[in-house]
Amino acid sequence: MTVYTHTAVPRPVNVDVRTVGFWVLIALSAFGAWTLQSDFLPVAAAFLGSTVLNLLVLAMGLAVALWLARRFLRPVQAPPWSGTWLALMWGAFGACGLALVMNGVLLSAWSKVLGLEAAGEWAAALTAPLNEEAVKTAGVVLLACVSTRLVRSAADGFVYGALVGFGFQLMENFTYGLNAIGMAGGVDPTGATGQVLWVRILVTGIGSHWTMSAVAGAGIGYLVSASSRSTAFRAWVAAGCVALAMGMHWLFDSPLLGGGLAGALARPLVNFAVLVVVYIVVRRGFRARWAEVAAEEVRLGSLVPVEAASLSRRRSRRRYLRSFGAVRVAQERLQQLELDLLEERIPERRDPAAAQPWRDAVAAAREGTLVNRPMPVP
Amino acid sequence: MNDMGSAGNAVYGRRRIRVPLAVVGVLIVLLAAEAVFAKSQPDGVTVASGTVITFGPEERASVQVGDGWVLDSASSDVNSRLVLVHGDTVVQLSTVTFPAAASPGEMWDGLDRLLGLQRRQGVEVRLEGPAEYENAAGTTGMQGDLQVGDRTGQAYVLPDADGATAVEVQVLAPANTGDDERAAAAELVDSIAIEAAS
């Protein structure tokens, strides 16, 4: 009997259900969902036209959020679907439900402390940045505890922060759409919901929750990354990012920059500009590290230069694959393994030897001896 | 083996238990601190007789408060709602902005629709009317008798000249409330004014 040596595809667990972090995410999201349904289910059931419109807009918003986050917000490749859904779930249910409880407590205090007039202008700015950024950021920290693979760089934190923010924003739009019915005196409920959704998506949507929590998330991603920087330095960067996110939220809710349409447009645009700056910094750092490890793997013989050059951008990967014609499927599999190998090398303090199973898989894929699961082949 | 070098992020080993518990702890401490802060403030503020409170969008609505009224600060927001309490009598003034100019009938139906939320939760709610109404400040609108649970009183819808916004008032008190309190509430409603949008 001839025995062939085969190499298995490394299949790391992105979401480990045996972790405390996972069950905290689930439990607090369940609590948040219960809180939200207690407040809004009776309204949703009573005003079905508004609810249907709200759900349609929510579904479209979700599609746009997924497209943006998975196509643009993480360099090189999209985050795994498991992490994507967990982040959205936390934002929509955990963070939004907890914020509802916490805001209810703190908002009522400001009228007493500041007086009616000042509270009317400043209560939201003194409440939401603290509570909402705290609960959204908590989600990124919890995702980092769900496995050691979901959040391993500032770029990971950025995209998961954005996803948490998108989840929060979508659920908040839903609740505002229902609240609008009461604010319109019960007249034309569907029209009232539509007007609020229109403003929250087209006017303020560009610079709302997703921008703030992406910035905070980048800081958390940097904090938990196996970076060569000291823990103290990473902690200061993370604190700075969370403070910046809170500042963005404060500006968003404050009466600064004036009221009316000009102010309503200016505030989200400022937040979007901050997001773009943070994104450029995060992306540059990620790409620099990617180029470094790609060069190392070329030196080690795992990658050939032409492959390494094509890996870092979606378009160049597609162009590279097109040149293979009929054997494209095999090459696509090899390319994914190469991507996985380089992703494994991103954490700076990770021992390069830890990525050996991925190197072996790449080599095996070239030789045609790779199997999908470790099993003896007769 | 289970260290930063093999894990890939800083939350490894026992930190994967401690960090999520710490996150829960921080959120609980934050909520508790906010609750203590809110509890440390008085529930209501006694309003000096003769005070005029402006409220609603662009503060276009106003009400003059008589003697003995307490503003329920926790339930009030100058942008949308004032809750004033006199003994057992509670007056809630809400400003509403209609999606498009609404007729008086639509406004009253809208109010009834909102009260329907409480009906769905098993609370006995009755809204009668409406009858035309004009208060001492010259504000015109509609009025009807209102019952929510075991509290009775009146509901008012007082629109601005354009029919784009309105002040909705609910006056509710236990059935055995004295005439003094009901008269105080009527005086309060009499002072409500709303300006048209500029």
UniProtKB/TrEMBL annotation, chain A:
Transmembrane regions listed in the UniProt entry: 20-36, 43-68, 88-110, 197-223, 235-252, 264-282
GO terms of molecular function: peptidase activity
Keywords: Membrane, Transmembrane, Transmembrane helix
Span of the signal peptide: none
Alphabetized Pfam families for the sequence: PrsW-protease
Protein name per the record: RsiW-degrading membrane proteinase PrsW (M82 family)
Entry superkingdom: Bacteria
From TrEMBL, chain B:
Source domain of life: Bacteria
Name of protein: Uncharacterized protein
